[in-house]
Design goal:
single chain, about 250 residues, four-stranded mixed sheet, about 35% helix, about 25% strand, disordered C terminus
Amino acid sequence: MTETIQIGALEIRVTQKEIKNVHLSVHPPDGRVTLATPRTTRLEVARAYAISRLGWIREQQRRLRAQARETPRAFIERESHYLWGRRHLLTVCFSDAKPSVKLDHKRITLTLRPGSSKPKRAEVVHQWHKHLLHAVVPGIIAKWEPTLGVSVRGYFLQRMKTKWGSCNHRARHIRLNTELVKKPKDLLEYVIVHEMVHLLEPTHSERFIAILRKHYPTWREARSELNALPLSGECPPQCTPRLHPR
């Protein structure tokens, strides 16, 4: 059951779930606020809790508004593109052959057929990003499966407008935002571990936090760094490790 409460100009979406504790979240990029409550929580109680956290909510929204945004990429000569946290310049070449992308030390070379449109250029680069992620994600999953005592049945890579990742704990699948290829690899690892912990605890409960803290003690630092990095100007992601008032 989902309802909306209004506190002045602030709109908060309240969802009742099978959880034990209240979870308040402020979502990038625009500071949207949600509140997850146990099913027995009355709306008046949820409202009172939200009012008590107004200072925290406003501070998170202020931080998000100040966060850097990437300008939309045009995929043109000498344009900056980030890969694993490092800046590279793009070189665009034209050839009557299958489109391709090649990486050297500081340069990404995009080879296209003459007349290729911006959407075509973007899709070629996106497929390359997926290829790079496929090369590292299985190894990270394999590293953490014995540590967490879980088994990931499958993973998926896709553009995600509102999350860095998600988990279907029943199917034992995780999904990852392809934007993560632009971030340092340790932050990709953090998101993967976060989603794998959801195989043990589906919600952001105290138990979830305890498991994450035990196995990934620097999770708060990783979350803060991920939230501080520039968001995509075209598809701004929301971090699944949400901003909790903890």
